[in-house]
Amino acid sequence: MDVYYTGQFVLPLPEGHRFPMAKYHMLRDRLVAEYAGIELKTAMPASDGMLALAHTPEYIRELTSGSILACAMREIGFPWSEAMVARARLSVGATIGACRSALKNGLAANIAGGTHHSYAHKGSGFCVFNDSAVAARLMQAEWGRDRLNLHTPLKVAVIDLDVHQGNGTASIFQDDNSVFTLSIHGARNFPFHKETSDLDVELADDCEDDAYLHALDQALDELEHRFKPGLIIYLAGADPHEGDRLGRLKLSFDGLEARDRRVFDWAWQRRIPLAFSMAGGYGSDIHETVQVQMNTYSVALAYAKRWKSTKVI
Fold first, then answer.
1. Taking phi first (over 0 means left), then psi (-120 to 50 degrees means alpha), and beta for anything else, what does residue 300 get?
2. Average pLDDT of 218-245?
3. For residue 4, which of 21, 28, 20 has the smallest C-alpha distance?
């Protein structure tokens, strides 16, 4: 299974910054050491033209040049630097690579990504560019270019199971019936002003495994009745875990593994290619966040083997 990574690129952050940047190289190192089925791929940076599929030219220009207002950077939550911009481009490029691989092989991943709070015109909540939105639109464009004789456009479902609503993604695709946005998130969690996804499922604080999985089953049933995707982008956030300091939910390791299994199986049963990203994870113990993500990869690898054995793509 192809897994896209931004090299050993670590964004320099001030000491004490609350974003757990170390989780990415910790996850990478464990994947390489423990899972033989991983094919680590180096991400390529997203170009201005790619970013413009989901973002305004003004935002891309201001962010890239460093002329962006200080208040806009405070909303993002990172200090501006050329390294910050470069990493954001690579994170988008990693999801693009994962989507291309998934359309060819059935399943692929981005070790980072899931930057769903980024709107067309601004970033927010540790999200600079919206990797899912850019990748979805680019895959649709490439699908149409490569299949000139086909009249069926590529429909994309974004299944966002980060604990926070994918408000930026919902806003970008608000009037686009070729992309279905599904978000299952904490009702009282960030962002406090929610956008309208195609399907929003809000959960009460302290929601546990059984209630969460029941809500997920219902949401997947509704997705099937309303939309027929040709590609799924799955945000497998670790932050619904009971040990997450920002999550407010109480899912166990087993509950989150069951969540992942439901999503991967739903896609597999319908032979829908799936690319996934890791999205949020802010555990009081960073090792617990990484373990949630390792469990996601363990499930994914089992389904990647099924895809490989069928050779149906």
1. alpha
2. 97
3. 28
Q: Which residues contact 281 (CB under 8 A, 6 or more apart)?
A: 20, 23, 237, 238, 239, 241, 244, 289, 290, 292, 293
Q: Residue 187 pLDDT more than 60?
A: yes
| 208 φ, ψ (degrees, to nearest 5) | -110, -175
Pairing mode, strands 274-277 and 156-160: unpaired
Question: What 3 state SS string does 165-213 have?
Answer: CCHHHHHHCCCCCCEEEEEEEECCCCCCCCCCCCEEEEECCCCCHHHHH
Q: Strand, helix or coil at 276?
A: strand
CA distance 171 to 167: 6
Which range is least confidently modeled, 187-191, 214-218, 305-309? 305-309
**Residues facing 160 on adjacent strands:** 183, 235
Is there a cis peptide before residue 191, judged by omega within 30 degrees of 0?
yes
Q: How far apart are CA 286 and CA 85, in angstroms?
A: 25
Q: Is residue 4 packed enough to be buried (19+ CB in 10 Å), middle (13-18) or exposed (0-12)?
A: buried
Q: Which of 29-33, 114-118, 207-211, 255-259 has the lowest mean pLDDT?
A: 29-33
- Rounded-to-integer distance, Cα 136 and Cα 157, Å: 9
pTM beyond cutoff 0.85:
yes
In the numeric block, which tokens belong to residue 37? Answer: 């089925």
